[in-house]
Amino acid sequence: MAIFDGSGFEAIRQMQENMAARLANETKTDDKIKIISVYDNLVEGRNTNKIQKEELIISLQEEGMGETEIMSLIDELINDGIFQEVGTGYIAKA
């Protein structure tokens, strides 16, 4: 039977924290991809690429995402230069 001096447990805890952080980052990336995909589906066949933010939010809520999470990720996509605000309540791909 092995006896741990505590450093082994700390190393395992650190590995678990790192894996959890990576998983959270991957989940956020997956959610951003989902938002872009839903946006693309909404603008498909339209004469314009701008849509109401609320329309996108409702569509994403129907897919199980929460409004607060959606708004936060849309803001990140705007800050990342993927989307841009084009008038009050409207967004478009940059």
Low-confidence stretches: none
- The count of DSSP E runs of length 2 or more, i.e. the number of strands, is 3
Backbone shape: elongated
Strand order of the largest sheet: 1-3-2
Number of domains: 1
CATH fold group: Arc Repressor Mutant, subunit A
**Which whole number gives the mean pLDDT?**
89
Order of helical and strand elements: HEHHEE
Number of helices: 3
Strand content: 5-15%
Keyphrases for this structure?
94 residues; mainly alpha; Arc Repressor Mutant, subunit A; 3-stranded antiparallel beta sheet; 3 helices
Q: Could you explain how this protein is built, in words?
A:
With 94 residues, the protein is mainly alpha-helical. It has one domain: Arc Repressor Mutant, subunit A (Orthogonal Bundle). The chain has helices at residues 7-43, 53-62, 67-79, and strands at 51-52, 83-85, 90-93. It has a three-stranded antiparallel β-sheet with strand order 1-3-2. Strand 2 and strand 3 form a beta hairpin.
In brief:
This protein is mainly alpha-helical and 94 residues long. 64% of the residues lie in helices and 10% in strands.
